Design the sequence.
């Protein structure tokens, strides 16, 4: 079980760092845009923020899923011939059809991918909400 | 893989914009109601807020699920005869029974729907919580 | 499809109201306890808050799941002989083994249960976090 | 049904207490590090915070999953020979392939594990986000 925890734990931690860096970059990017675009109508800025944030975060999640697929390939976590990106993506989102099952020795990697995925997707959701909240001051108490 | 990412990414971004617009409209709607209904007992306002917010957000999620079903139909992501609304709804909520599987060439659309769904549902949850928090001042520190 | 949306939408809205009422009651209960127990050591109060909040919210989720099971029974959403509480609970948490499938005409009730469940569970999580945050002032900026 | 609720409810509450204690310990640990490492570059502190938080929370989730596996073993919730850690981990993350099913008499333990897992993972996500928010002051309004 230790080898599964090491492989899955390392992948999880790298993904956390990726997401933290992307979050930092997004904050800088959006602040730069806020400075320049302050003359644009509110609806436009709102849309630009959501499309930018959504696209960058989607790219981050996709990179994290590719890292899981790479880990699966490196240790042989799925039967030969498996579409590893689809398998990793399905685990990451906890879809879990059961059409592909991990091999017995590495089966813990599947729920570890799910744990990592839920946390990172929840993090993205919190980030999008925090950005939009700034543009909807009525949501704040003060 | 690029065609899957383009189709799923476009659907995801449109849904993010839909949800952002609905959030903006809800804030305006509830502020209007708060102004008029300030004489009503607290329990009534509480219930009106939750029922309004819940119904509007449910309608938004349903529209987003229909857009996924439309994308599935446009590219042929599921076997002929599939109930696409049910398939899209099950993916969007990550239910994932495995009773319907996507066709091989478009299989990434299923977890992309799940990623989009988790984020939008999480966003709705944060919004409901933010609205109710305003009516429960004890939850705030200041 | 309209009958499914009406049955599922009504159940969802009633559950939102249940959860809002339980949240209001919990806030009052915990404030009362905070007033009386202020002489107790911090660790004790911390544990009492988490056990009380967790138990009350679990009871609320269970009541909401029973309401879904009742709706399933009323419309005949699952094959005869199905353990409806287990089926509703599995849908509500998006577990989705696929060992039980809804009948065709009412199949949308399953992902509607999932949508309702994710939102209410996320709400509970936000509430527990908000309560504990008050006892961990270092998490706050000010 | 009462025995299932007692066994699952007790496990859930103990896990809530574990997570609350780990959250308290993490806050103290990170404050200690913040005091000592204030001369280090921002990128380093950022990475240390995320890696520490992620690793400690992962360990907490793993301990909670082991407790569920222990409960499954104590009552015989899965068929003999089942890999209980994998089964508990898959339920906790709501992966739900359906490759392992609980025995009929204890089947509610599976969605109870899922309910407990979603809440605790959501809690961890909120905690990571709260820690990082402190290092990204632009996310705050004031």
Sequence:
């Amino acid at each position: 079980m230790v080898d599964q925890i090491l492989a899955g734990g390392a992948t999880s931690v790298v993904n956390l760092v990726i997401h933290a860096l992307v979050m930092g970059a997004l904050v800088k990017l959006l602040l730069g845009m806020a400075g320049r675009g302050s003359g644009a109508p509110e609806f436009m800025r709102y849309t630009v923020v959501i499309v930018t944030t959504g696209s960058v975060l989607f790219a981050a999640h996709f990179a994290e899923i590719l890292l899981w697929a790479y880990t699966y390939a490196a240790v042989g976590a799925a039967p030969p011939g498996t579409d590893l990106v689809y398998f990793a993506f399905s685990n990451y989102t906890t879809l879990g059809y059961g059409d592909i099952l991990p091999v017995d020795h590495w089966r813990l990697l599947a729920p570890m991918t799910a744990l990592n995925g839920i946390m990172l997707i929840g993090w993205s959701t919190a980030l999008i909400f925090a950005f939009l909240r700034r543009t909807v001051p009525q949501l704040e108490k003060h």
User: Anything to note?
Assistant: Chain B has four helices and no strands. Chain B has a mean pLDDT of 88. The interface with chain C takes residues 46-47, 50-51, 54-55, 58, 61-62, 83, 85-86, 89-90, 92-99, 118, 121-122, 124-126, 128-129, 132-133, 136, 138-139, 141-142 of chain B (CB under 8 Å).
